[in-house]
Amino acid sequence: MLAPELLESDPRVSLDLVDRGEIDLALVDDWPETAIAFPPGVSALTLGLDVADLVVPVGHPVAAHGRPVRLAEVAGETWIASVPGSICHEWLMRVLPGIRPRFLVAEFASQVTLVGAGLGVALIPRLARAHPPDDVAVVPVDPPPARRPSKG
Length: 152
What we know:
Layout: H1 11-19, E1 27-30, E2 45-46, E3 50-57, H2 61-64, E4 80-81, H3 87-95, E5 103-104, H4 108-116, E6 122-125, E7 136-139, E8 146-151
Parallel strand pairs: 4-5
Antiparallel strand pairs: 1-8, 2-8, 3-6, 3-7, 3-8
């Protein structure tokens, strides 16, 4: 009988567990700018791309533009971001050098809640967010940033 188990973990930790034979399969994500190195002997299959959008409080000026925003246009905003050491945090630091997020939060749903409270802006992958609440606006980014969900 098959008895699947689930472990939510950092992509690099998950790949290490696959490499050591402690788990059979890992679903991981990375960003092209912060690509994960798959261990030798571990095969990978890219499952697609997950585009991220800028999430801002309702009434924010970039939401009123009606056009995609370039990340450089919002670099001076107060940022809400993933925690240091995570793939998403590393990516944001690489594409917006010099920013210093004031709020570091592991869960994307919590990031959206903080945005809705008017505390800053965040970049949230589409697969990581449910229908946005009424107190936030979702603004496409140009060029669209995308992470790659993969199976290793």
